[in-house]
Design brief:
- By secondary structure, the protein is α+β, with helices and mostly antiparallel strands.
- Helix content is 46%, strand content 18%.
- Strands 1, 2, 5, 6, 8, 10, 13, 15, 16 and 19 form a ten-stranded antiparallel sheet that branches. Strands 33, 34, 37, 40, 41, 42 and 43 form a seven-stranded antiparallel sheet that branches. It has a six-stranded mixed sheet with strand order 28-27-21-25-20-32, with no helix packed on it.
- Strand 33 and strand 34 form a beta hairpin.
């Protein structure tokens, strides 16, 4: 044993070395080690004894020592393994027959000569050698009779099998992939014998004269397999590799044109090879393939011994185009793949329609919106790119306003809107053109707000990019926050500082930006829905690329589906992932087939530029994209026609306001020109400009000197910044000069008649002229005439500033006509892939097609939904951590669209609209309160709707637990067995009932069924009795002589639990060796697998003396006769139980029946039955599906409510337990989980009881524990329904009346409790009295509980006056008359009075709660949804109610 253990360890190590054998020397050393271990095993081996076999996962070793004469009598193999099998012929020429020979066999799963890449060896490798006792090798070669070697093939190998109809010429395509393998053709004819000829042709259909090989079937042979097998040696088909055509031509008699027969042909190639040690190569010399070769086992016939292996080539998945019509003719049998591909084409056409509509909508989104509230006189332009986030509900319907805050000033508020498209949609990027009078300098922040209007006012703003067109500067503002009431910080006014480079390169920002861009544009599938509107790669093109990619994926998948794998191929492991080289090669081949063409199509669509871009249009035609030049001319013309003093004063006031904003002076803005002196306004402008006169000379000197000096790169804070400031001041001066020229012209048009006095007109002209002279001095060498003519539109400015970008745009990408090349490739690839996929599917057959379709869909969705998103996320993480590059957006090729309004119209809009001012704090508080109320109303509606669904599921679950047929089944069984019973049955009557009614119903007409044959008896029925001990009580002294024996009433103390012989004779020793229970031996409750049961008198134990009745009526009758004869029932018997279980298949119910006959020791037995039905097997009806769904949904609801209550408990802590509704919720959850636990217990116990019954079918099968558990489950579900329904009261608190009733009950709670105590005391007093007086003669009062129930029934009018008054009219009248007067007329009416008083007080002092307001808002919204007008329904006639209602309305509209 120790040798075997050591050898096993050595062989495992050697096998591991062979798996990764790098060269010949290492392999030879490893094989030598294996030979030495075999020698060690043979060292102590006796002759002709059992062989020694070692089995390991990847190799097996066989050694044995036999005489040479017995060698050919045994088959050498390793049983129960996939190893080779050797059958040796008689070897008489190598030695005497009695000479011992050592047989050494080695079987390996992998090729030990893997360093030699030639040979194409697959499958297991085996070696057999014969040695003498000294270890010398016995050469076995050049035998006259071949050695048979059977080499198994793996189970998963696939072969091509074709069934031909021989009614005409039939052809099979065979792909031969090796020139040193034997082609095996296995044929199975429909008729035997079936003569036919076979012709094999290479790359063409063969004929009788032009063929590679031919034969006539059947061949000679003993079996059909031998006769219909054609083996073609490589020399027979001339070692041609590639496609061969096999033509089958039936041989028929003269005059017969066709036959009705079919032929199944299975083709594969294989080779029998051995390892030639002299040449270190795999060779076929001396070995050939046998006729018994099958796709599972290769038969090799060799005349020598060495290492043997096989080469097996399965023809890859090919399809013959010449059989296209035939394959499509099988569509009715296999429509799976064809229908699937056809449905894909149909879905693609529908998707194209949707994508085209989306592209049309996206065209509108690409253009830059020129804001309508831009001032036509403003010259500085900013491009605003505002992106909305991707969060749920990120889009807004509010009116958004923005203000730019710069170092040189702040812009006026601008309303971001577009009359032709919706802005700020989820994930959208909106671009606006905003103008200012002057440059704002370096931007320091922006201010965003909205007016919280519309159906969805909340807005999640992502980031804002501001681009100064004049200076080509960009500022980024990372907002990433909500502007919403009730979300985020609850603000609709946001100030965002400019983001620094560090902020932009932060991981969170880079990761979000990269992920968003890759999903919206880079990911081919996701970008179909969320592509950037400005991308040249349209949605239609993306859908087409996805469609082509899917079809190509399907084609490559089905081409390589089912290709057999080589089990001997080494598996590479990477953690939990493993793959083989063949899988890797298939993946590479699939990628080379699929990806190049699809990448080419995508690249063509992405790189093809539009037919005529906007920048190219500007080359040939002078643009006026924004229409500002023409608009200025229109404005000038309009002002020349309609000029008034008020408009001039407004223009001058605007100039003064712009100066005050930029120079940061504290003056009062003048929004209106009415009541303002024009000379005063001009004086104000003059005061702004002339104090800077001292800086004129310095500015002129700096400008002149700067024009004469070379301009090296200035350091920060040096002359460069000074020149920038000078240029900025110069642009402001030019702007002021043009504005004043415009005003001067308008004054000239107005004339003195438009002024109050001529002096005012002349003074205004002088002031204008003086200001202009001052500005001309500041401008210095610049010609003022050029200033008034050098105004450019924003389009001109942007066009002239980026000439190199324009040229790059026009020459970037492929020519526009390349898009037709892309569409041609899409059409070609789609139709070719779809066509060949359908052919493959038709060839595969239905089962294989369904299998491929399932695997392809699983892998496809796994790739799209899991693998590719993970790639995007990993790439985004790498980009954010390593690359850290901020990608800028380019808006060079977008068109400008919009129109700027007139100045007068603009001023009126700004004055009359509230959107240009941030909402006041008071309005925001009102919005917040309204939003909170709406959220609470929605939460309330959600709570009610959720609870209604929860109640629906609970009621469905409760209904599913019970069967309405239970009542009828119980009544039928009870009525059947209770016939011939009475309340005064003696022991003889009991035996008579048992022999008649019991047996006739227990064993019905149909064997094994009770009564009428609808309920099957499960197991045997049994009788069980409980007895009391003899002389268990004491007889009264004077009566001792008359009645010496006294047997007590039934009680657990007096119960007899002894063991007796037959006839209740005392036995000293009880024989239990037989293993069967005796009816005279007491058995405990656990032994009987029973439970205590309540009778009409007392609670009975589950033990007792038991007698089983047997499986049929004959055995039951004999048992009863035996019990009657031996007096099994006597005066000590206190209770008799008949217990059995039946199953009614019609209603799928098990009914556990207990028939009880009990006596109180007075000598009369009373009949009582206890039945309980339980469903152990779920029914298969439609309701069962809904019940299971309800159970699962109910469990999910419990988890949901647990989560809510856990959150509430965490928030409120100990205060949580002071709320009664919270305790009710907690009780419902606990009851639900208890019901789940009992449900599982019932299933487990039910399976246990059924297993016991199946193993003991001729014994009593106890289902009492299952029935008890089911009863507990019913009680839990009932109480759960009760409490869950009671919770509806809490939900109805929103109704004002219900809320008032609840508050009234709470107000009167102490008084009600006191009255309930008084009522309880009175009930107890009258119950005790009636029990004492009438308990001995009336059954309604025989116990205290019966009396209490009767007194309670008296209060609701259910009472039998006759039975009380007949016995003692005076006593009964006094007792029950006083009860009616005191309890009914006095106490109960006082209780009602207390409740009514409390309700009246509550009406006087009741204050509407916030929940009532929420309920009104919810009802108002619901009614508004259905177009119903909702009005308050509270009492308006009461003054207090009117006051409360007025106060409520004031709060609502405040």
């Amino acid at each position: 044993m120790e040798i075997h253990t050591a050898v096993s360890a050595i062989l495992e190590g050697v096998c591991s070395i062979l798996d990764i054998c790098p060269n010949k020397d290492v392999c030879d050393a490893a094989l030598l080690s294996m030979s030495n271990t075999q020698s060690a095993l043979l060292a102590f081996k006796e002759v002709d004894k059992a062989s020694i076999i070692l089995r390991k996962p990847h190799f097996r070793v066989f050694v044995n020592r036999v005489t040479l004469g017995n060698l050919h009598k045994e088959i050498i193999n390793i049983p129960n393994s996939s190893s080779l099998t050797f059958s040796l012929p008689a070897l008489s020429n190598i030695g005497p027959s009695d000479e011992p020979v050592d047989v050494r066999m080695l079987s390996l799963d992998t090729n030990p000569f893997s360093w030699n890449k030639r040979g194409n060896i697959s499958g297991p490798i085996g070696a057999l050698s014969l040695t003498r006792e000294d270890g010398s090798i016995i050469p076995v070669e050049n035998l006259s009779e071949n050695i048979e070697i059977l080499i198994p093939r793996p189970v998963g190998e696939k072969v091509e099998t074709t069934v031909l109809d021989l009614g005409n010429y039939s052809t099979v395509i065979i792909n031969i992939s090796s020139d040193d393998s034997t082609l095996v053709l296995k044929m199975v004819p429909s008729n035997d014998p079936l003569p036919f000829k076979l012709y094999l042709g290479y790359m063409d259909y063969p004929t009788e004269t032009n063929n590679v090989a031919m034969t006539e079937m059947p061949h000679q042979g003993e079996t059909q397999e031998e006769r219909y097998t054609w083996l073609l040696d490589p020399r027979d088909f001339k070692r041609y590799r590639g496609k061969h055509y096999l033509v089958v031509r039936p041989i028929v008699g003269p005059g017969i044109k066709s036959i009705n027969a079919s032929l199944s042909i299975t083709s594969f190639t294989t080779a029998c090879k051995f390892w030639n040690e002299s040449t270190s190569e795999w060779s076929t010399s001396g070995c050939r393939v046998g006729v018994q070769t099958t796709p599972l086992v290769i038969q090799c016939l060799c005349n020598h011994l060495t290492f043997f292996g096989s080469s097996f080539f399965v023809a890859p998945n090919t399809v013959d185009l010449s059989q296209t019509a035939h394959l499509f003719g099988t569509f009715g049998e296999n429509p799976v793949v064809v229908c699937f591909v056809g449905s894909l084409f149909l879905v693609y056409l529908l998707a194209i329609v949707w994508a085209r509509r989306k592209d049309i909508k996206d065209i509108v989104k690409v253009k830059v919106t020129v804001l309508e509230d831009n001032n036509p006189m403003d010259e500085n332009r900013y491009l605003l790119s505002v992106s909305t986030g991707y969060r749920r509900g990120a889009s807004t319907s509010s009116q958004v306003t923005i203000t730019l805050m710069g170092a040189e000033g702040t812009s006026e508020p601008h309303h971001l809107t577009d009359p032709k498209k919706r802005v700020f949609e989820r994930g959208a990027v909106d671009v606006f053109l905003l103008t200012t009078p002057f440059s704002l300098g370096d931007l320091q922040g922006i201010r965003l707000w909205h007016n919280n209007s519309g159906s969805h006012p909340a807005w999640y703003v992502g980031n804002v990019v501001v681009h100064d067109i004049q200076t080509d500067q960009k500022w980024h503002f990372l907002c990433n926050s909500w502007l919403a009431i009730g979300m985020g910080d609850g603000s609709v006014d946001l100030v965002v500082p400019v983001s620094t480079e560090m902020d932009l390169k932060r991981f969170s920002n880079l990761f979000y930006m990269k992920t968003t861009k890759d999903f919206s544009d880079g990911h081919l599938w996701y970008s179909v829905i969320s592509r950037p509107p400005g991308s040249n790669f349209t949605c239609v093109q993306r859908v087409s690329c996805c469609f082509t990619l899917l079809l190509c994926t399907m084609l490559t998948s089905i081409m390589f589906y089912g290709i057999p794998t080589d089990p001997s191929e080494q598996t590479m492991h990477f953690g939990h992932f493993e793959f083989t080289w063949q899988q890797f090669i298939v993946g590479v081949q699939s990628s080379l087939i699929m990806f190049p063409i699809n990448i080419l199509i995508v690249s063509i669509f992405r790189s093809t530029r539009a037919r005529e871009t906007s920048c190219c249009k500007r080359k040939t035609k002078k643009p006026d994209a924004l229409g500002l030049n023409s608009f200025l001319q229109t404005v000038t013309t309009n002002t020349e026609v309609d000029v008034s003093l008020d408009t001039i004063i407004k223009d001058i006031t605007r100039i003064a306001c712009s100066l005050s904003n930029n120079m940061k002076s504290n003056i009062q803005n003048m929004e209106s020109g009415q009541g303002v002196d024009v000379n005063a306004v001009l004086s104000m402008v003059e005061d702004f400009i002339k104090p800077n006169k001292t800086t004129i000379d310095f500015t002129k000197h700096q400008m002149q000197s700067s024009s004469n000096l070379a301009q090296p790169q200035p350091p920060e804070g040096g002359p460069g910044s000074t020149m920038e400031g000078i240029q900025r001041k110069s642009s402001k001066t030019q702007y002021l000069y043009r504005q004043l020229c415009h005003i001067d012209k308008r004054l000239s048009l107005l004339g003195p008649s438009g002024f109050p006095t001529p002096h005012s007109y002349s003074r205004a002209l002088q002031q204008i002229q003086g200001i202009k002279e001052c500005l001309e001095d500041q401008l210095g060498c610049i010609n003022p005439d050029e200033i008034t003519q050098n105004r450019l539109s924003p389009a001109d400015s942007s066009d002239g500033g980026d000439g190199h970008r324009k040229r790059a745009c026009c020459h970037r990408g492929l020519p526009w006509w390349f898009v037709f090349v892309g569409w041609l490739l899409v059409i070609a690839c789609s139709f070719v892939s779809g066509f060949f996929t359908m052919l493959y599917g038709l060839k595969f057959g239905k089962d294989r097609s369904v299998s491929w379709l399932v695997s392809m869909n699983v892998s496809f969705f796994q790739s799209v939904l899991v693998i590719q998103p993970l790639k995007v996320l990993c790439l985004a993480v790498f980009f954010a951590l390593v690359i850290k590059k901020v990608e800028n957006e380019d808006f060079q090729n977008v068109e400008f669209e919009g129109k700027t309004g007139g100045y007068k119209e603009l001023q009126m809009k700004r004055q009359n609209s509230s959107i240009y001012k941030p909402p006041p704090a008071a309005d925001i508080e009102k919005m917040k309160r309204k939003k909170v109320m709406e959220q609470k109303a929605f939460a309330l509606f959600k709570e009610i709707l959720t609870y209604v669904v929860f109640m629906w599921m609970l009621l469905l679950l409760a209904h599913g637990q019970k069967n309405p047929n239970v009542f009828f089944l119980h009544r039928h069984i009870r009525d059947s067995f209770s016939s011939k019973t009475s309340d005064t049955m003696s022991l003889a009557d009991v035996f008579t009932w048992a022999n008649t009614s019991l047996l006739s119903n227990l064993f019905g007409v149909y064997p094994g069924f009770i009564t009428d044959g609808n309920s099957k008896l499960v197991g045997n029925a049994r009788l069980r009795q409980l007895r009391v001990q003899g002389n268990s009580c004491q007889t009264a002294g004077p009566m001792l002589q008359v009645a010496p024996d006294c047997n007590a009433l039934n009680s657990w103390e007096a119960e007899d639990m002894g063991s007796y012989d037959t006839g209740w004779n005392h036995s000293e020793r009880v024989d239990t060796s037989t293993g069967t229970s005796s009816p005279w031996t007491y058995q405990t409750q656990s032994e009987l697998r029973s439970y205590p049961i309540w009778g009409q008198m007392v609670l009975y134990r589950g033990g007792g003396y038991v007698a089983e009745l047997g499986p049929d009526s004959q055995n039951a009758t004999s048992t009863l006769d035996y019990l009657f004869t031996n007096t099994w029932l006597d005066v000590h018997t206190r209770a008799i139980f008949v217990e059995f279980t039946v199953y009614n298949a019609n209603v799928n119910l098990f009914c556990i029946v207990t028939l009880l006959l009990e006596t109180s020791a007075v000598g009369a037995f009373q009949f009582h039955s206890e039945l309980h039905s339980v469903r152990l097997y779920q029914s298969s009806g439609n309701l069962h599906i809904f019940v299971i769904a309800a159970e699962i949904i109910h469990l999910l609801f419990i988890l949901y409510y647990m989560f809510l209550q856990g959150k509430l408990m965490k928030q409120q802590r100990w205060a949580y337990f002071r709320c009664k509704w919270n305790l009710l919720e907690l009780t419902i959850i606990l009851l639900s989980w208890s019901a789940v636990a009992v449900f599982i217990k019932r299933a487990v116990i039910g399976n246990r009881d059924m297993t016991y019954y199946e193993n003991h079918k001729h014994q009593f099968a106890s289902f009492y524990e299952t029935a008890t558990t089911d009863a507990v489950l019913q009680y839990l579900v009932a109480f759960l329904v009760l409490l869950a329904t009671f919770k509806l009261w809490h939900l109805l608190r929103l109704n004002p009346k219900m809320n008032m009733i609840t508050a009234a009950l709470q107000r009167a709670g102490n008084d009600i409790s006191s009255f309930l105590v008084v009522i309880l005391i009175m009930f107890v007093a009258y119950s005790v009295s009636s029990n004492v007086i009438y308990g001995w003669k009336l059954s309604s009062y025989k116990t205290f509980m019966d009396a209490l129930l009767t007194i309670i029934s008296l209060q609701i009018g259910i009472f039998n006056y006759d039975e009380v008054l007949d016995g003692s009219p005076l006593l009964g009248g006094l007792l029950f008359g006083s009860c009616i007067v005191l309890v009914t007329f006095v106490v109960l009416n006082l209780l009602l009075s207390v409740i009514l008083v409390a309700f009246k007080r509550e009406r006087l002092h009741h204050k509407p709660s916030e929940e009532e307001e929420i309920a009104n808002l919810m009802l108002k919204n619901i009614c508004g949804l259905f177009g119903i007008r909702y009005g308050d329904t509270s009492d308006v006639h009461r003054p207090e109610a009117k006051q409360d209602r007025g106060h409520e309305q004031q709060q609502k509209y405040s």
